[in-house]
Structures are given as C-alpha cells and as structure tokens.
Amino acid sequence: xxxxxxxxxxxxxxxxxxxxxxxxxxxxxxxxxWPRAECHSFGSxxxxxxxxxxxxxxxxxxxxxxxxxxxxxxxxxxxxxASSLRVIERAKVPLVAYVDAxxxxxxxxxxxxxxxxxxxxxxxxxxxxxxxxxxxTIFLKxxxxxxxx
Length: 149
What we know:
about 150 residues, alpha+beta, 6 helices, globular
C-alpha cells in the first residue's frame, strides 16, 4: 500500500519533464539578463523526494549583481514567465518566489547557494544506500503537509 501511495503522490516521469520545462523557462529569463548565469534545480525535485504538490527550488550561479532579485523579478514579469511573483529580501536566504505562468508550479529562486546542490548530492547518496527511505520520506512529507506541520 505504501508503494501505491508513493506512485500516486510522487512525481511521475511526465511531472519531471514539466519541471524541466519550467527550469528551461527560468534559465531563458536569467540568461536574458546575465548571459553567464547557470540555473540548477535542487531540493526535493532534484533528489526524487518531491510530491506532485511540491514547489521547485532553484539556485542561480555566476551572477554578480547587487540588484539581482529585482532584476530577475522584472524579467520574469516582462517575459510572461511568472503569473504571480514576490521578492523576499529579508529571509535568511533571499529569493524570488513565483508561479510559472504555463504550469502553475511554484518556484523559489535563490542566488549563489551551492550548499543546496551539495545537500542534494548527499541525499541522493543516502537514498541509494537506504532505498526504503524514499517511500517513507514521501509518505511523511504528505502526512506533515496535510496536518499543517
């Protein structure tokens, strides 16, 4: 039953392809402003622990711009990539949070956060070492979200 639950609520191959297209649109917006920018997905989508309702976490590297949050926000608005958008400057990790206009998927974009990429690699290694952790983690995430925890 747990495996049926995971098959239903975890990302399908189609969901993963859609998330890839979301990342490509963001990449296009970033490269329009900063040609050397690199966009990397991390977090639960990257590690295979995402639910179908999960957001997508992305970090942008190689951007040396004091006003990067607002410049990215303006490009996402003007290019039509985002249907709604917030710049969150006063968080521990400042970010641009937006909803992809084409899919409705929520995206959180931070800058120069390679530790997220490193954490994703550690989690992937642990999931290979302990394969039972993936279904248990997906179930636990769903349970906690629906309990408001």
